[in-house]
Amino acid sequence: MIIRWTYAFIDRPAARFAEACAFWTAATGTGLSEFRGGDDEFVTLLPEGTDPHLKVQGVREGDGGAHIDLCTEDVRELTALARRLGADLVADHGDWAVLRSPAGQSFCAVPWHGETVRPPVVSGSRLDQVCLDIPPSRYDAERAFWAGLTGWRQQAGSRLEFTVLLPPAGFPVRLLLQRLDGERPASAHLDLACAGISAVRVRHEELGAVLVGEGAHWAVMRDPAGGTYCLTGRDPETGGLPGGSGQGAVAG
């Protein structure tokens, strides 16, 4: 089994789906595909001249968040592996499946449609990371689960609470596992690698986002649909920290 591509899913309340689509197409320089699903709740963000790696979903319950789609040539095999490693099957849609990791993180196993070319950096940033926020009691088991499922290389992050899972070169989305500082439910958010956080922050604020908080190398933002995400001080081409490191640094 080989994971061939990755998508980051932007999950936002259905009532604010249009706001999410408007913001994220502007922020990433993309357009919208046709809407899909029984309630037109799914859409892909389409870059020009390359393959997509971002999708938006309108969720009926909760505040949304983020999740990762793992694209494979054999959804059944990937699903079976995930379940052997401790995941729960949430929904089997035949050619794709919704699963939940041992700590409760949702993700999907979906067919690979030949995507190979990741989109370019847009206005100094690239959305390239799904950060899984994991309670301390579940962190080691969750790290082992995701490493076993993906087969990606583990690398220590810039801080003790981070582990980066690095996919093969050319993949558009990687995983960052963050150990939370207290016991609370697992969640996930999106990270953008930014050549200059301040400049990207100004642009996003002009598009309707607001600043929530700041750290040493990141800014926590809230988009117009109410979802939080992070602007991080990493090279948007490589995903690494300045100086050539592949490590990541984000806020929780």
Strand content is 35-45%
Distance between the termini: 32 Å
Helix content: 10-25%
Helix count, DSSP H or I runs of 4 or more residues:
4
Major sheet details: 8 strands, mixed
Q: What general outline do the C-alpha atoms trace?
A: globular
> What is the CA-based Rg, rounded?
17 Å
Class derived from helix and strand content:
alpha+beta
Major beta sheet, strand line-up: 2-3-4-1-5-8-7-6
Order of helices and strands: EHEEEEHEEEEHEEEEHEEE
Number of strands: 16
List the uncertain runs: 245-252
**Average of pLDDT:** 94
Describe the overall structure.
The radius of gyration is 17 Å and the shape is globular. The longest helix is centred in the first third of the chain and has 12 residues, at 17-28. By secondary structure, the chain is α+β, with helices and mostly antiparallel strands. It is built from 4 helices and 16 strands. It has helices at 17-28, 75-84, 139-150, 197-206, and strands at 3-13, 31-32, 42-46, 54-59, 65-72, 88-92, 97-100, 106-111, 125-134, 153-156, 162-166, 174-179, 187-194, 210-214, 218-222, 228-232. It has an 8-stranded mixed beta sheet with strand order 2-3-4-1-5-8-7-6. An 8-stranded mixed beta sheet has the order 10-11-12-9-13-16-15-14, covered by helices on one side.
What's the structural blueprint in terms of helices and strands?
Blueprint: E1 3-13, H1 17-28, E2 31-32, E3 42-46, E4 54-59, E5 65-72, H2 75-84, E6 88-92, E7 97-100, E8 106-111, E9 125-134, H3 139-150, E10 153-156, E11 162-166, E12 174-179, E13 187-194, H4 197-206, E14 210-214, E15 218-222, E16 228-232
Parallel strand pairs: 1-4, 5-8, 9-12, 13-16
Antiparallel strand pairs: 1-5, 2-3, 3-4, 6-7, 7-8, 9-13, 10-11, 11-12, 14-15, 15-16
